[in-house]
Amino acid sequence: MATGEDDAVKPRSLGGCFEEFNREAFRLETMDDYSQSGGVDAYQAFLAGKPKPEGFTDNPWMTTVGDAIKSGKRMYRVHILARPLNDYLRFELGWGYIRNMKAGEEFFILDTTDQENPIPEAPDFWLFDEQIIGTMIYDGHGKFLNAEFLGEEELVTFLAYRDKALAHAVPFADWWAEYGE
């Protein structure tokens, strides 16, 4: 089987993308509930008013982010949401984002409470080095099922989603200082 240029940029897995990206990894989050996609024990502790479970602040994702940032890469995301925050968003932002920021991940909020969503058709996705698009597929309960990798012909659309989301978003720390619960 011949290996073409296209084969060189197609990842085998989402995990492989985090190991192989060179400059930046961008995420657009469009859902209000990812509660079945990881950190389930921490979410249950949050709901019960308990402290963060052991291992919450020292886990593989923190290592992935920390290693990327230390090597000069950028990891950042925009979450599209509206107030009032549901329980899951209060957990994700109050526990998860604040934890991940310590490793160097950047967060922005596109709050649609008082403005229209400028990209309502955009799916959840990761964009690596402005070349590889992995759309995130979830079930109706916030459980991650898989990533679907799109072709180069979709790049213009997904770069526009990223740029528009960032243009309408504010840094998480500023937003949280005003609206955090």
Query: Which CATH architecture?
Result: 2-Layer Sandwich
Per the CATH scheme, the topology name is Endonuclease, Chain A
Share of helix, binned: 25-40%
The low-confidence runs, each spanning 5 or more residues with pLDDT under 50, are 1-8
Largest sheet: 7 strands, mixed
Approximately how much beta-strand content do the residues carry? 15-25%
Oligomer: single chain
Number of helices: 7
- Mean pLDDT, nearest integer? 92
Shape: globular
Gist of the model:
This protein has one domain: 2-Layer Sandwich (Endonuclease, Chain A), CATH 3.30.870.
Fold and architecture overview:
This protein is α/β, with parallel strands linked by helices and 181 residues long. It has one domain: Endonuclease, Chain A (2-Layer Sandwich). It is built from seven helices and seven strands. Strands 6-5-4-1-2-3-7 form a seven-stranded mixed beta sheet, with helices on both faces. The model is unreliable at 1-8 (pLDDT under 50).
Task: Spell out the key features of this protein.
single chain; 181 residues; alpha/beta; Endonuclease, Chain A; 7-stranded mixed sheet; disordered N terminus
Blueprint of the fold:
Layout: H1 5-9, H2 14-20, E1 24-29, H3 40-47, H4 60-70, E2 74-81, H5 87-103, E3 106-111, E4 125-128, E5 132-138, E6 144-150, H6 155-168, E7 170-171, H7 172-179
Parallel strand pairs: 1-2, 2-3
Antiparallel strand pairs: 1-4, 3-7, 4-5, 5-6
